[in-house]
Amino acid sequence: MGSERSEHEDGGPGRLGGALSGLAVAVGSLLFLGGFGWGAVIYQPYTIPTESMHPTLSAGDRVLAQRVEGDQVRRGDVVVFRDPSWGGGPMVKRVIGVGGDRIACCGGDGRPTVNDRPLDEPYLAGAPAEPGSGSRTFTVTVPDGRLFLLGDNRLGSLDSRSHLSDPQRGSVSRSAVTGRLDAVVWPLDGGVVERPEGFAGLPGGISSPGPVVPLAAAAAAGAILIVGGAVYGPIARGAARRAAGRAARGSAGESAGRPASHV
Known about the structure:
Elements: H1 2-10, H2 12-42, E1 43-47, E2 62-66, E3 78-81, E4 91-98, E5 102-105, E6 113-114, E7 117-118, E8 138-141, E9 146-150, E10 172-173, E11 177-186, E12 191-192, H3 212-257
Antiparallel strand pairs: 1-2, 2-11, 3-4, 3-11, 4-9, 5-6, 5-8, 6-7, 9-10, 11-12
Helix pairs in contact: 1-2, 1-3, 2-3
Catalytic activity: Cleavage of hydrophobic, N-terminal signal or leader sequences from secreted and periplasmic proteins
Organism: Streptomyces amakusaensis
Subcellular location: Cell membrane; Membrane
């Protein structure tokens, strides 16, 4: 019995299992805390206040915006920015044009054009607005170092079109950008904010997604390892005790079944 106890509880498989359990918890903690910690450095959470970006975003959605510099922003990005002439608070809109772009609204099919190229905008609700149905006809060249922004809810968004009479023709400085949206974290089915391919053929292309998916995967894997490592230890110890008990009962039965020896 002593040797069996030593094998199961003091060494052998039991000790190896305990070591692996501890390693799983340690690695899991590193992944979990590292994923959340690095995410807190890279991302800033926001709550969407209005329906101006519907259907891409709805009022009350919780989103993660990657902290980026304004010069990293590309056409098609959904950005968070602050501009005193727009009220000074954080606003969320989609970048339609950058410095030097000629933006016109709207073509015969109701679509805005960038440098005479009609935009393909599948993220809008329904078909593009027909001229005269609430869209505003305009042509504007975006000043250098600035951005032209529209809400995806074109009939219910106060955006660059509402500031066309301003000296900068409705544009916002790149330096006003504080983040670029990467994901909707609430509701849970929100997912990653896609980069629209309709802008990919324009100079500069579209931006690359941030690291929100690998960071979330690291945190999830870490949580699984922590839970798995934590429950493995008690399960392994219980299994070892049960095995030792069965072995002890077997030895006792063998002893009882042997005939008594005579001197």
